Amino acid sequence: MKIFKFIKKYIFKYKLQLFIFFILSILSWIISISIPYITGNYIDSLIYSQNSSTIFNFTMKILLIGIVSIVSSFIMNYSYVKLQTKSAIDLNLDVLNHIFKLPILYFKDIDTTYLNQRVNSDSNTLVSFILNNMLDSIIKSLTLIFVFYISIRINRKLTILLIPFIPLYLAIYFIFKKPLFKSGHDLKEKQNKFFSKMNEQLYNIKLIKLNSTFEESGEQLRENFSTVLVSLLKYTRISYIFSSSDSMTVTIYQITIFLFGGMEIINGGLTIGQFTIINSYFSMIMECISYYLSLGKSYQDALVSYNRLEKILNQSKEANGDKTLDTIDTIILENVYFSYDYTRNIINDFNYEFKKGSIYCITGRNGTGKSTFINLILGLFNDYYKGNIYYNSLELRKLDMYSVRKRIIGISEQEPRLINDTIKKNVVYGINKYNYGDIEELLKKLNFDLNKFSKGINTSLYEDANNISGGEKLKISLTRTFLKDPDVIILDEPTSVLDINSIEKLKFILNQIKEYKIIIIVTHSKEILDIADEVISSNEICYNLNDKINVYQS
Ligand SMILES: Nc1ncnc2c1ncn2[C@@H]1O[C@H](COP(=O)(O)OP(=O)(O)OP(=O)(O)O)[C@@H](O)[C@H]1O
């Protein structure tokens, strides 16, 4: 029931498809349940009346039913596929949307390919489970009632013989419930991890080539696969024992029907037509019961998926306030502390004021917290710091930083990533309003030679392809930052991959625009320090890296 509650909003969104699917499922059920009855009566009328019009009527009926059945099952399947795919993708995107808003440190120990795989397969499993069973479970119950009723009316003794098999089925399900859930869960986890490992190998193709670690990579995959195989075999063993109990029961049923049904015909308690009706209806009863058995199994599979999605959705989103700003004039830090793991402070009682109209350079040794500091003032660590950070007079935790970052902060990262799209799309990524002419002008100002690219600004770029250099990537990211024309500009190591000439161009642009902006630059390079109004050493941010006594606890 909790799975249904969780999924219903995704499938009820597509009411028309759902309606068509339901109506046609019911039609196909009526057809399947009436055919044995019509056939049994046909056999008896052939035996007792020998009238040729009976044959004509029966064949016409079967032809009509056949045509209706073919057309309706096509439309039913078509609606099902549409409904299933759309609902599953909606669920998938909702979960992804939640993941996007989890604290950045959640991703520290998470394999994102694995996570993606997991969300996708779990969303599909859940939607399919509900769609396949929501109506089927009702139809199968109706079938059981209807078929029992007709069978009892035809032959009470034979029908009563079937009843003890029902508790037997239930007992089998309850015995296998836990092992099936556990082995199913284990298998899904291992499969997702294995595929993510495969993906990682392709992602690191350059690293593998440069170090010629082809054999080691293959070996790693094989090792990983062997754990998948162990889980798969265990799951197969348990599933097989579970399903073979089903076939065993079918065999016992059939023996019972043929033995007692045959005797009843000989003794005149059943006509041949009635025997075929009962025989077909008993097969339906078997189908229904084995459906309920497999429902138990697929419910356990769906429960695994539900628990895994719920675990993600129960993760709290990162703190993000609701106040917004139209301009930023100052960023003030008051007694700010930050630690990743509460064993060592990366930022230690830091106080500072950043004002519009100045360029600030943050320098310092590797690993001393410069990038951490940038992430902190951008609002990525809102759940983890102590002290106060004010934008104008509003504390960072109260601000809707999604909106502030989107509109009035521009960031160029140390290792900018590209989206797989054209140069133009990469430059305007995340920017709603821009002037097309400004793009080319900015690229030119940064010494970015568009003529080198076959289709100019419309050339497609790929993050992992080598059709663009590190410096060119950085220039795209810088162009995006300047095109946005934000109040705060943050550049993390902007000069590390730029040539001297391009550094001079960048400095020129920064000096030109600084009057109305707060510009913060993280740098190791001395070449850019001369444009700084203030230089902050990372030692000031964390004045004693080994200070374990003073570690703050949140
Ligand atoms: N997600 C994280 N979890 C735990 N520790 C982290 C995390 N990110 C960074 N650190 C640690 O925090 C310290 C500061 O890292 P940070 O990246 O801020 O340094 P940095 O000054 O920018 O270095 P660099 O000059 O090399 O870019 C490092 O010791 C690093 O190992």
Which labels suit this protein?
disordered C terminus; 17 helices; four-stranded antiparallel sheet; 63% helix; five-stranded parallel sheet; 2 domains; 554 residues; Rossmann fold; binds adenosine-5'-triphosphate; alpha/beta
- Briefly note the structural class of the backbone: alpha/beta
Radius of gyration: 34 Å
- Counting structural domains, the number is 2
> What is the total tally of β strands?
9
What's the end-to-end separation, in Å? 39 Å
**Share of residues in strands:** 5-15%
The kinds of small molecule bound in this structure are: adenosine-5'-triphosphate
Dominant shape: elongated
- CATH 4th-level superfamily of the largest domain: ABC transporter type 1, transmembrane domain
Query: What's the main sheet like?
Result: 5 strands, parallel
> Which whole number gives the mean pLDDT?
87
Determine and state the CATH class of the largest domain. Answer: Mainly Alpha
Q: What is the CATH architecture term of the largest domain?
A: Up-down Bundle
Number of contiguous helices: 17
Order of helices and strands: HHHHHHHHHHEEEHEEHEHHHEHEEH
- CATH-assigned fold name of the largest domain: ABC transporter transmembrane region fold
Question: What share of residues is helical?
Answer: 55-70%
Pfam families: ABC_membrane (PF00664), ABC_tran (PF00005)
GO molecular function, one term: ATP binding
Organism: Anaerosalibacter massiliensis
Keywords: ATP-binding, Membrane, Nucleotide-binding, Transmembrane, Transmembrane helix
